[in-house]
Design goal:
The protein is 25% helix and 36% strand. The chain has 137 residues and is an alpha+beta fold. The strands form two sheets. It has a five-stranded antiparallel sheet, covered by helices on one side. Strands 2-7-4 form a three-stranded antiparallel sheet.
Length: 137
């Protein structure tokens, strides 16, 4: 079994932002010559998340709007006494920092309309770190 490791560093421009990282994840599989296995995508920040969904502009806006509705910045959050970003921590905790995707024949097993996205929930930030680890043969 082989194990490959790649780090992405992302600069974000807005407080809440969605960045497609599908190509970079696929590159990690190709560069590490993994034919069949599993790929883990993990964000090292508690105010970010990783999701899979369709890349359609209206849907991207809907996702951001739903996050704003469920985790409003001006909510009465206890953590805001310290950092004023409890909404981002809560969204990150409930959405999740990682996903795992099967790899078959050297390709991510994504559906026709699926892409991998990094969600910035407390930007803008410089050097957001995403780890991609691939295991397989």
């Amino acid at each position: 079994m082989r194990v490959g490791f790649k780090e992405l560093f992302l600069n974000t421009k807005r407080r809440r932002e969605i960045i497609d990282i599908t190509e970079e994840v696929q590159k990690a599989i190709t560069e590490n010559d993994i034919e069949n296995g599993i790929c883990l995508i993990y964000s090292t920040h508690s105010t970010t998340a990783i999701i899979i969904n369709e890349e359609e502009s209206g849907l991207m806006e809907d996702i951001l709007r739903k996050i704003d509705e469920d985790y409003p910045k001006n909510g009465i959050w206890l953590h805001n006494r310290i950092d004023d970003n409890a909404d981002a921590h809560l969204a990150g905790a409930f959405i999740g920092p990682s996903i795992a995707i099967p790899v078959k024949d050297g390709r991510l097993c994504l559906g026709t309309w699926q892409n991998i996205f990094f969600l910035e929930l407390d930007g803008p930030r410089i050097g957001r770190r995403v780890i991609i680890e691939v295991l397989g043969i």
